Amino acid sequence: DGGITQSPKYLFRKEGQNVTLSCEQNLNHDAMYWYRQDPGQGLRLIYYSQIVNDFQKGDIAEGYSVSREKKESFPLTVTSAQKNPTAFYLCATGGYNEQFFGPGTRLTVL
Amino acid sequence: EDQVTQSPEALRLQEGESSSLNCSYTVSGLRGLFWYRQDPGKGPEFLFTLYSAGEEKEKERLKATLTKKESFLHITAPKPEDSATYLCAVQGEGYQKVTFGIGTKLQVIP
Fold first, then answer.
1. CA-CA distance, B28 to A42, in Å (whole number)?
2. What whole-number distance in Å separates Cα of residue B37 and Cα of residue A95?
3. Which residues of B touch A88 (CB under 8 A)?
4. Could you tell me how many CB contacts below 8 A there are between chain A and chain B?
5. Were B47 and a residue from B13, B35, B56, B76 both cysteine, which residue would form a disulfide, CB within 3.0 to 4.6 Å?
6. CA pair distance A78, B47, nearest whole angstrom
């Protein structure tokens, strides 16, 4: 069954903690993306990667970090430097014609 | 900088009442314009990609059209299951970044 998986679905973090969100794909796409979605705002790009071992900052990269060691995986770490991390996080993959999204991870800071 | 503006922000229709959603955009050389459907708490579901002015695509009760400045998503005889937020996004020539609008929240009442 092809697609994109994100885990966990819900994540709770205490202030000052780093957390890592998982994103795995078996669509054989080179490009992968991380977006953040907040109520009343469009999806905002955090990081994207066009190829293994390479990634670029998006519009709101501060307080986040990523790695791309395998084509199938693009984990996102939300660090303690991110001041307002509570949001819905979406991973996507794509070619030039469309992007496919995972089911999302809802992160809540307690 | 690429920009996407969607209107209206919210739309309430009676079942069977046809209408259109608008997506106005500015981009340096359009590679593609995308429409997505998003249900609450889920990742966006890809609907259409449009590439050039004059292009049209259809899927069940949905029809997307494209001009040089805007795109319309026409919904014909909608049903309650069409209730969702519809997102528009654009990708410019030469780069992978996709810019999203805030979306139009559609509610179809039986």
1. 20
2. 19
3. 41
4. 57
5. B35
6. 30
> What mean pLDDT is reported for chain A?
92
Chain segment B55-93, per-residue pLDDT in tens: 999 999 999 999 999 999 999 999 999 999 999 999 887
CA-nearest of B51, B50, B4, B49 to B26 is B4
Report the gap between the CA of B46 and the closest CA in chain A (Å). Answer: 7
Name which of A50, A96, A103 is nearest B31 (Cβ-Cβ). A96
Residue B99 has pLDDT above 70, yes or no: yes
**Residue A54 pLDDT more than 60?**
yes
pLDDT at residue number A1: 53
Q: Collect all residues with Cβ–Cβ distance below 8 Å to B37 and sequence separation of at least 6.
A: B44, B45, B47, B84, B85, B86, B87
CA-based nearest residue to B45, from B3, B90, B85, B92: B85
